[in-house]
Specification:
Layout (H helix, E strand, L loop, with lengths): L4 E2 L1 E3 L2 E3 L3 E6 L7 E7 L2 H19 L3 H17 L1 H12 L3 H21 L6 E4 L6 E8 L2 E5 L7 H12 L3 E5 L5 H13 L7 E3 L4 H10 L5 E5 L2 H14 L2 E5 L4 E5 L5 H13 L9 E7 H16 L19 H16 L3 E4 L15 E6 L14 E7 L2 H8 L4 E2 L1 E5 L3 H10 L4 E4 L15 E2 L2 E2 L8 H5 E8 L5
Parallel strand pairs: 1-5, 8-9, 8-11, 9-10, 11-12, 13-14, 13-19, 14-17, 16-17, 19-20
Antiparallel strand pairs: 2-3, 4-5, 6-7, 7-23, 12-22, 15-16, 18-21
Helix pairs in contact: 1-7, 2-4, 2-6, 3-4, 4-5, 9-10
Bound molecules: nicotinamide-adenine-dinucleotide.
The site of nicotinamide-adenine-dinucleotide has 29 residues, from helix 7 and helix 8.
Length: 482
């Protein structure tokens, strides 16, 4: 059977592009999941025009109308979790349980924002001047460009699109080139749930071609972007010229501290799940294991033992712990960093290609032992199943090493010492702190984001989302105004 062709969706209608690009299964490169008919700059501009045209009517819909659509879409996503999870695992390469979990998360996010939009978001108060009344209301921003990475093909789009729509904005959504199918399904579900034409538009196209239109056109009021630091920084420069509101969630270089007071079994599980889960392709992945002298050798030994039982294979095969790397480019990047670590003096455990597993991009999980915090492997984002170990004298040195990260998204500590845990929670310079938990794994009803190069602009998700997706209006009313 020939693969189905996916197109952009603009103004409620399919818009074929100029070229068809295969969406390839990273577990088996002979399997083409779909063909993406990719558009060009014209497609992006037409989508922005459609979103701008749809904005006045959509922004005046009632919260109940918007809530009902999001709720219906959330129900369909949840009802189709097995099927969409299978598609996601096939397209992106995370294991089926991880992929299904991500789909369920997307459904929960849609339902969360269906509820959020019905909550009060304004204020009414007395002025400091007698008799005058003040109201502070939240209004939609306008046309929002949503640009997303490949590693969470349905959850990240959902956590941007749901609040954008909930608060009355219209959207042009550009997913990553590697994962058009999950994106297409989400848009199809939302449109069939009752969105008027033009409220949510999908643009399939190369980032370098359609991206600049979606970030620099005067028709764009706000841009919410998740991706690499370099692309994000470029967008930030462009918005300096247009003045569009911008929110960036970028790379992560996340430390996990393991102190002499740690439960070592728990430490190994936190490291393994946080570092190798989703093939290490998570912005919150643990990548630097900062281990105090007292437990360093026993921790490394236990890690190597545990890595020996970590099963790598086709993402959709039951019992697999880790799927493939997403594509040849990412695989080359992972191997480059292993080479860099080796050249810096590290001993690499694992990290070899697994040719006999299948026709995919399979890499054994890797641990770089004997690294120093100022090595490149500990400063730059690898974005693969690669962790490094830094040996430190004590907790104070561990905290300093953890805080050396310039992409401080999520930092963790494993310890049974309450005072140490409390101190770390208070003094870590990360956007999110995990105590006796993997650095990856977050909730949708609380703010998400990092510090340093990792984030820019208001936090995403939970109650924080209202900040970016609305603009606040303060109105003063004189006494006696009819
Ligand atoms: P990327 O920056 O290469 O691409 C992200 C998106 O930007 C894609 O849709 C891409 O097509 C688009 N794009 C490319 N060039 C563009 C341009 N000039 N203008 C506008 N858009 C453009 O990132 P990626 O490789 O897809 O994703 C991996 C990165 O994402 C990692 O650095 C990871 O840490 C980061 N990430 C961050 C978070 C977070 O919340 N902090 C979450 C997930 C992933």
């Amino acid at each position: 059977m020939s693969p189905r062709v996916l197109t952009s969706v603009v103004g409620g209608a399919a818009m074929p592009g100029t070229e068809e690009r295969p969406d390839v299964n990273p577990s088996d490169v002979r399997d083409v999941v779909a063909l993406a008919s990719v558009g060009d700059a014209g497609t992006a501009q037409t989508a922005l025009d459609a979103a701008a045209a749809a904005f006045p009517a959509w922004s005046r819909t009632t919260p109940w109308e918007r809530s009902s659509i999001l709720d219906r879409a959330g129900s369909e996503v949840l009802a189709r979790a097995d099927e969409l999870g299978d598609l996601l695992a096939r397209e992106e390469g995370k294991t089926f349980p991880e992929a299904r979990g991500e789909v369920v998360r997307a459904g929960q996010i849609l339902k969360y924002f269906a509820g959020t939009v019905l909550q009060p978001h304004g204020l009414a108060l007395d002025s400091v001047r007698p008799g005058i009344e003040v109201t502070v209301t939240r209004e939609p921003v306008g046309v929002v460009s949503v640009i997303t990475p490949w590693n969470f093909p349905i959850a990240i789009p959902a956590w941007k699109i749901a609040p954008a729509l909930a608060f009355g904005n219209t959207v042009v959504f550009k997913p990553a080139d590697l994962v058009p199918a999950s994106a297409w399904e989400l848009v199809d579900i939302l449109n069939r749930a009752g969105l008027p034409a033009g409220v949510l538009n999908l643009v399939l196209g190369r980032g370098s071609v359609v991206g600049p239109v979606l970030t620099s056109s005067p028709a764009v009021d706000a841009i919410t972007f998740t991706g690499s630091v370099s692309t994000g920084r470029g967008i930030l420069m462009e918005t300096a010229a247009t003045g569009a509101k911008v929110q960036l969630e970028l790379g992560g270089k996340n430390p996990l501290v393991i102190t002499g007071q740690a439960d070592l079994n728990l430490a190994v599980e936190c490291a393994i799940q946080g570092g190798f889960g989703s093939t290490g392709q998570r912005c919150t992945a643990s990548s630097v294991l900062v281990v105090t002298e007292a437990v360093h050798d026993s921790f490394v030994e236990a890690m190597i033992r545990r890595m020996g039982s970590w099963r790598v294979g086709d993402a959709r095969v039951e019992g697999i712990d880790m799927g493939p790397v997403v594509d040849p480019g990412q695989l080359a990047q992972d191997e480059d960093y292993l080479g860099i670590a080796r050249a810096e003096g590290a001993e690499i455990i694992g990290g070899h290609r697994l040719e006999d597993v299948g026709e995919g991009h399979f890499l054994a999980p890797a641990l770089a032992v004997g690294t120093s915090i100022d090595h490149r492997i500990n400063k730059e984002e690898v974005f693969g199943p690669v962790m490094s170990v830094v040996r430190v004298a004590d907790y104070e040195e561990a905290l300093a090493a953890a805080n050396a990260s310039t992409m401080n998204l999520s930092a963790g500590i494993v310890t049974r010492d309450l005072a140490e845990a409390a101190h770390f929670r208070r003094h870590s310079r990360a956007g999110m702190v995990m105590v006796n938990l993997p650095t990856a794994g977050v909730d949708f009803h609380v703010p998400f984001g990092g510090r340093g190069e990792s984030s820019h602009g208001p936090r995403e998700q939970g109650t924080a989302a209202v900040e970016f997706f609305t603009t606040s209006k303060t109105a003063y009313t004189a006494p006696g105004t009819p």
